[in-house]
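Researcher: I'm preparing a figure for a lab meeting and need a structural model of a single chain. I don't have an experimental structure, so a prediction will have to do for now. The sequence is pasted below. Please return the structure as tokens so I can convert it later.
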Amino acid sequence: MEQAKENKMGVLPIPRLLVTMSLPMMISMLVQACYNIVDSIFVSRIDEYALTAVSLAFPVQNLMIAVASGTGVGINALLSRSLGEKNQRDANLAAVNGIFLGLISCVAFAVIGLLFSRTYFTFQTDIHEIVEYGVQYQTIITGCSIGIFMQVTNERLLQSTGKTIYNMVTQSVGAITNIILDPIMIFGLFGFPRLGVAGAAIATVTGQVLATVLGIYFNFRKNTEITIRLKGFRPNARIIRMIYMVGIPSVIMMAIGSVMTFGFNKILLSFFPAATASTAVAVFGVYFKLNSFAFMPIFGLNNGMVPIVAYNYGARNKRRIIQTLRLSILIATFLMCVGFAVFEWIPDKLLLLFDASENMLAIGIPALRIIAVSFLLAGFCIVIGSFFQALGNGVYSLIISVARQLIVLLPAAYILCTVSGPQSIWWSYNIAEIVSLLLSVLLLKRIYDQKVRDL
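Model: Understood. Here is the structure written out token by token.
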């Protein structure tokens, strides 16, 4: 059925549109950042083995999120572009095939998790307690992965049509549910049995499933710009191929972070003295917890920007594309400058949130201040990467991510440690960000000439 009126992404003033699209996502991303920290605090209260087990499970969780979110980027770009082209059929097909891909992905991870979780942990450690904690946690997380896959898929459908306020509701309710249930299920409060690490996993899955239920309700009741019909569904190879043309590079790009983290930790353990090596790794872990407060709002901004750019690219509205990109870069740069200022002014107070020791403060304060310099360039680079995805060219984003995290960051970290000592390792972030900036500018000019200039 043809749309009765123009989508708001084609008519509303860009500043108002970008704010209304992005702000709910930015708020929900900040809630997610709070959840990540609180969740780790609760798990650490069981014992150190429990925290280690959950940390070892992180690459698998990160891979699930990468597959779900990367596929969601492909769904988002195709659906928004189809609406901009007034191609309602492809928009509906993108939605229903996206749901199908999410279901297939969760089945695959459930099978892998149920069959190979013990093998995965015994390969990494021979400490019985860690293996048992890890198997409990990962089996539940992967076995019930329908929650994360369907939550992300439903949120991307809402995002594609500009209904981001509902995403704020689903993400916030899911995260808050998780935070509330964590202490109750882990420690057995209010008459609940004490479930330990398994309780943390159940709390996480419960929050995801609740967010999924809300997402399904919003898509069927509020998202009138797409029609989702599952009866008589057959996978559409053309639509799936178009989704994955953008989605697979996004999946790889998000998964690269796990490889980079593993490699960076290995370098820290190799070059720092034995007495402080584990502390250096802890500082690096704390940095990742803290930087989410700087980066999550940018990711929320991008979630609002992508459907606007994709829609107006489909509608061949060059002016609105350029205006959206410029405003997004301005907001992202401002937000990252705020993050830079906080990291420079109060790094000690940030570290003390994690009960930092004297050694941790000695290593962490200069580390946070050095890495924070990269924030000044990161906002631009992150926005440009999402701009490439919105135009259907996720490969450019992948090129930049691989170059930054694997080709430049890890070798630079190793060389700096070898030449100048381990404390210089943190400068590798700034070197990598400069290379990322140069590549972003070059590829932005290329894609502008190819896809935007003649609209």
